[in-house]
Write a sequence for this structure.
């Protein structure tokens, strides 16, 4: 098991390297750079000389392979460089915001799993009954409704009917849990609904399939009660395919935060990412994409390890 | 299921006083009786009655066999006893099931739950899917002990150890903590039996318990089940399609056809003097080890009725050679007749005597002279997947120095148990798998060195028929499209010519031309396999590799397909490589037979000689393990059951690969790798003790 995990971690290196290279090249294909944007948008008169000096200061005049090498070297030594726009260290820019984003993502995932597992199971067990139809309508709606729209509706409902709006400034959960939660629960719900819908549908179909397996019939033939048949014999098998989806969707969620954070006016990593792209802040874009890639790959590694834990057949 | 509750005493009284339903003849010692059971299925395709007024009963300590072909309702009636029918599709609409005097259909769901696994257990067909893959064996065995008997974890584990020992699994403590995938198929079935025995039930229902297993393992499992049930006084209901198993193990037999019992009674009587034309046809159409090759197999023509349609008369009428108008209009009821019961209007008229149909032109003796296919020292290694990142990959030596020839118009039977490499040999000849070393020469030309373009041409001359006719047909293509595709794609026939050829092919395999508009799911297994054969014939091949072509089919259909293959060979002179695990089937069609064990050829001989004078202990064990449908022969036979299992194909073992299971093995055998020697004219065996292997099968041959 440990060897398997180590092997998988070793395989992450080429994957991440590839992602870094593609990101690096892609953002540089787009014409224009941060220097032009910064100086021209100020409206003042800038000489070519000043632009060139600024480029030299930021290292943008160096040949591309060298820039890439320097970035990689920085990553390995945990020196992520400074934002090209604000001049503040990238680590500081990201570090101040990542907590919020991760918290929203994890809460959304929790919301999703807590809703999806019972909902999917109930739908499967009462297949083709009114309960099943209701759950299927709820879940299909979850797939159809974009989370930013749902987010806006939530805010509107809170304002119109409850005359209340969530706090605007972020407080860490360690400082003031109540205020933190009252701010972040709404985006988590908005994002988690879709997530729950995807997972619930997966669980429903996977329970239906598992309940027709021979070993379920064996369990019944042994006189196992229906409750234990579902929760002991069927659930673990049914969760296997669902876990893959939970993992993939979690990674997807982080990407989806870009939109959600705009709607809820949260100063998270998604917001930062959008700003960085608008400003052509190469270093910041690169680092955020790379960070998201690491999260994506790690989550999938965790999924595989959990899979191995649940399914003895995949254990080494 | 809303019957009024009947107390045990009342129920007993009712049975004792008058037999309300013909067929149920419960003796005083009746443990289970099913009376006039009716089960209906509601599916998307429609509504049908899978079990239509079935009655059978079994006495304490007795073994009853429910026999019939797929879809005849034997499993459904057994699942009804356990009340485990698939819901909501199936529902019991009438009848009673009395277990020890209690009507199980009136029992509450929780009452049934307490009975399942404690009073009655069930063992299912496929051990590979019947155990939960994510729970340990120990957990699965102890579950009923903890649920029903309230044993503590410690006590339950103690009992589980005993159970594993009882079913012949060693290293019990360690095995309890393992998962199903760490067990072989035979071992998993032993675990299933251990689960079934756990609470000392009074009744065990075994639904095709050995159909998914190899012959030698089948024999071990069945012997063990018989010994255990006798020793523990357990009543056994075996559901099977294999009449050999019935002959060896059953006291009483109930034969089912299309949802009804057609005949039931003591096994001896049913085998000796069957009264129903179906039973009779079934017994005759079984390919038998103890019958010589040459004659056509007798078959029951036609297919079982489609139960979605209503049938007024006898369900067997459409296939019965004695059919009268009465049979077509009125369903016969089950009536006692000379010690057993028959549901046939003509049961008192007697059946025509055995007739042996033979192929037109007598014995197939084509000019089998020139060699068509020559396989020389063929080897195949599979690179075993290395465990983890850095470990060395282990190689699996699947085929070891296999050599044989097939002449034009000849059938070579290739026999062995699963994993012996027989299918890999077939795949290498088809070039679906590349050979690791050795040569395959087809019509004088090496397939190993031939260019890819040449192989494409040669493929038209080497065709294949697969085991599973359903899985090997594209579900989205009609039969006509399936047959047309090779003709238009590869032969460039004009649409008219291709269409004519399709008709010709359909005629050749004995189907009606309107099948060409049907999809695979609209046809029966036998019809699908006929299309599989038609497709193989499309190019007019010289050689057809038949990979277990009949093992997925029912007995009465098997015979039809084998006869069809034999007829096509007689007409077209095509050669077959006939791969099978069933020695009896192979005997009927082959001219020569090769037996493989763990990748090696252990014996090869002309067909009849191999069956009469097998000289390799493994061949003998295979012959002895396959039960013959005749209770007298089976009873006379001493138990020569091969112990042990095939063992890991990965292990590199010294000496004879069979030595660890061989009853005749000596120390030498573990060191000397026996060469394949010619011990008589064109009879080869790889055993250093072959002179000592004398014919002990006197009773059966």
């Amino acid at each position: 098991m440990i060897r398997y995990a180590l092997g998988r971690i070793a395989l992450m290196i080429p994957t991440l390297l590839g992602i870094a290279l593609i990101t690096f090249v892609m953002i540089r294909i787009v014409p224009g750079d941060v220097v032009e944007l910064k100086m021209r948008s100020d409206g003042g008169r800038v000489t070519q000389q000043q632009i060139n000096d600024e480029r030299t200061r930021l290292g943008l005049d160096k040949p591309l392979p060298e820039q890439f090498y320097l970035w990689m070297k920085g990553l390995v030594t945990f020196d992520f460089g400074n934002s090209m726009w604000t001049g503040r260290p990238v680590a500081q820019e990201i570090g101040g915001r990542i907590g919020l984003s991760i918290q929203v993502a994890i809460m959304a995932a929790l919301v999703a799993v807590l809703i999806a597992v019972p909902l999917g199971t109930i739908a499967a067990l009462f297949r083709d009954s009114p309960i099943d139809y209701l759950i299927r309508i709820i879940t299909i709606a979850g797939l159809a409704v974009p989370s930013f729209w749902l987010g806006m509706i939530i805010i509107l409902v809170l304002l119109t009917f409850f005359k209340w709006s969530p706090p605007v400034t972020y407080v860490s959960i360690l400082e003031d849990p109540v205020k933190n939660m009252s701010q972040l629960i709404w985006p988590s719900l908005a994002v988690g609904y879709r997530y729950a819908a995807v997972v619930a549908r997966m669980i429903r179909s996977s329970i239906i399939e598992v309940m027709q397996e021979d070993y379920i019939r064996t369990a019944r033939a042994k006189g196992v009660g229906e409750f234990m048949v579902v929760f002991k014999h069927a659930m673990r098998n049914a969760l296997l395919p669902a876990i893959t989806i939970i993992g993939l969707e979690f990674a997807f969620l982080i990407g989806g935060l870009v939109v959600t954070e705009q709607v809820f006016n949260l100063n998270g990593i998604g917001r930062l990412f959008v700003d960085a792209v608008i400003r052509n802040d190469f270093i910041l874009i690169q680092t955020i994409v790379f960070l998201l890639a690491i999260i994506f790959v790690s989550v999938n590694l965790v999924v595989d390890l959990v899979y191995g834990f649940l399914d003895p057949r995949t254990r080494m | 299921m809303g019957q009024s509750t009947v107390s045990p005493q009342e129920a007993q009284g009712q049975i004792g006083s008058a037999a309300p339903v013909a067929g149920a003849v419960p003796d005083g010692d009746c443990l289970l009786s099913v009376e006039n059971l009716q089960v209906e299925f509601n599916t998307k395709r429609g509504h049908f009655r899978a079990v239509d007024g079935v009655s059978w009963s079994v006495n304490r300590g007795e073994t009853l066999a429910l026999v019939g072909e797929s879809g005849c309702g034997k499993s459904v009636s057994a699942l009804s006893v356990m009340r485990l029918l698939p819901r909501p599709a199936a529902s019991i609409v009438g009848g009673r099931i009395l277990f020890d005097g209690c009507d199980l259909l009136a029992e509450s769901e929780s009452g049934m739950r307490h009975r399942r696994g404690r009073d009655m257990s069930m063992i299912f067909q496929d051990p590979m899917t019947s155990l939960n893959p994510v729970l340990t064996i120990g957990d699965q065995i102890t579950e009923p002990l903890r649920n029903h008997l309230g044993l503590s974890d410690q006590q339950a584990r103690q009992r589980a150890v005993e159970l594993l020992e009882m079913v012949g699994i060693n290293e019990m403590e360690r095995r309890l903590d393992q998962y199903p995938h760490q067990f072989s198929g035979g071992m998993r079935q032993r675990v299933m039996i251990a689960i079934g025995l756990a609470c000392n039930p009074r009744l065990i229902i075994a639904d095709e318990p050995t159909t998914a297993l190899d012959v030698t393992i089948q024999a071990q499992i069945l012997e063990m089940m018989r010994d255990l049930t006798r020793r523990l006084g357990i009543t056994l209901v075996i559901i099977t399609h294999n009449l050999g198993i019935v002959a060896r193990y059953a006291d009483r037999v109930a034969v089912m056809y299309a949802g009804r019992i057609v005949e039931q009674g003591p096994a001896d009587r049913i085998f000796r003097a069957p009264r129903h034309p179906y039973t009779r046809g079934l017994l005759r159409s079984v390919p038998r080890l103890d019958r010589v090759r040459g004659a056509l197999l007798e078959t029951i023509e036609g297919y079982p009725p489609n139960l979605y349609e209503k049938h007024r008369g006898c369900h067997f009428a459409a296939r019965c050679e004695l059919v009268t108008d009465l049979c077509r209009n009125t369903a016969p009821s089950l009536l006692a007749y000379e010690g057993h019961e028959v549901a046939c209007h003509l049961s008192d008229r007697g059946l025509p005597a055995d007739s042996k149909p033979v192929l037109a032109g007598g014995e197939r003796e084509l000019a089998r002279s020139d060699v068509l296919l020559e396989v020389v020292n063929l080897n195949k290694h599979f690179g075993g997947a290395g465990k983890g990142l850095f470990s060395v990959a282990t190689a699996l030596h699947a085929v070891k120095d296999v050599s044989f020839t097939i002449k034009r118009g000849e059938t070579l039977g290739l026999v062995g148990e699963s994993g012996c490499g027989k299918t890999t040999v077939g795949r290498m000849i088809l070039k679906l798998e590349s050979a690791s070393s050795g040569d395959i020469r087809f019509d004088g030309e090496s397939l190993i060195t031939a260019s890819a373009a040449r192989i494409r041409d040669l493929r038209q001359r080497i065709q294949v028929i697969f085991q599973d006719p359903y899985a090997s047909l594209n579900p989205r293509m009609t039969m006509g499209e399936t047959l047309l595709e090779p003709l238009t794609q590869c032969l460039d026939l004009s649409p008219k010519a291709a269409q004519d050829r399709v008709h010709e092919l359909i005629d050749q395999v004995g189907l009606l031309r309107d099948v060409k508009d049907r999809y695979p799911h609209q046809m029966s297994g036998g019809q699908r396999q006929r299309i599989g054969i038609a497709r193989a014939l499309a190019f007019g091949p010289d050689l057809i590799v038949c990979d277990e072509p009949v093992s997925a089919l029912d007995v009465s259909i098997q015979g039809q397909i084998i006869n069809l293959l034999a007829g096509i060979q007689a007409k077209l002179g095509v050669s077959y490589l006939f791969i099978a695990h069933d020695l009896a089937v192979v005997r009927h069609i082959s001219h020569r037979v090769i037996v493989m064990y763990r990748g090696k050829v252990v014996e090869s001989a002309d067909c009849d000689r191999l069956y009469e004078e097998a000289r390799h202990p493994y061949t003998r064990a295979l012959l002895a393990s396959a039960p013959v449908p005749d209770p007298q022969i089976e009873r006379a036979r001493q138990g020569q059951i091969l112990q042990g299992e095939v063992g890991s194909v990965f292990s590199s073992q010294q000496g004879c690969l069979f030595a660890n299971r061989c009853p005749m093995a000596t120390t030498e055998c573990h060191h000397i790798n026996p060469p394949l020697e010619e011990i008589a004219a064109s009879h080869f065996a790889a055993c250093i003790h072959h002179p000592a292997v004398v014919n002990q099968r006197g009773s059966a041959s």
In short: Residues 161 and 296 of chain A are 39 Å apart (CA to CA). The mean pLDDT of chain A is 85. The interface with chain B takes residues 3-4, 6-7, 10, 212-215, 217-225, 232-233, 236-237, 310-313, 316 of chain A (CB under 8 Å).
